[in-house]
Amino acid sequence: MRKRRWLVAVVMGASLIGFATVGAQDGRRTVEVTIKDFAFKVQAKPLQLHEPVRIVLHNTDEVQHGFTSEALDGMDVRVESNGVVTYGRGIKGLYVDPGAKVELLFTPDKSGALNFRCDLHPRMKGELVVLTVGAA
């Protein structure tokens, strides 16, 4: 029987840089997303479907930015910032104040694109892509 592997990659065109790391405390893959100069700068490498992931958003701009995705609306998502935790289904997005860091923790459960954007600045866009790779 042939096994299939599911992978998730963060794609930002020329903004895809670096590699994801595995968090020491809980084994989650960590995707670093820095918001700088009104753009998402992403550090990631492919992640497996059904593998827990942590997205760390760091806003280095001097204005508030949004991070929203319709795909997050159907997933169980945990958001952590400054000791406050929000969790559950129905989280479509969040706002990140200047200088702030926010963590989103979830487990991708579908293949396809997980598009995200800043709802305050329409030109800021990115995408998480779920890829399938056949394995023997």
Question: Would you kindly provide a written description of the structure presented here, covering whatever features stand out?
Answer:
This protein is mostly beta strands and 136 residues long. The protein has no helices and 14 strands. The strands form three sheets. Strands 2, 3, 4, 5, 7, 9, 10 and 12 form an eight-stranded mixed β-sheet that branches. The protein has a four-stranded antiparallel β-sheet with strand order 6-1-14-13, with no helix packed on it. It is globular and about 35 Å long.
What spatial form do the alpha-carbon principal axes imply? globular
Largest sheet: 8 strands, mixed
Low-pLDDT regions? 1-24
Strand content: over 45%
Structural class: mainly beta
Properties at a glance:
136 residues, 8-stranded mixed beta sheet, 14 strands, 0% helix, globular, mainly beta
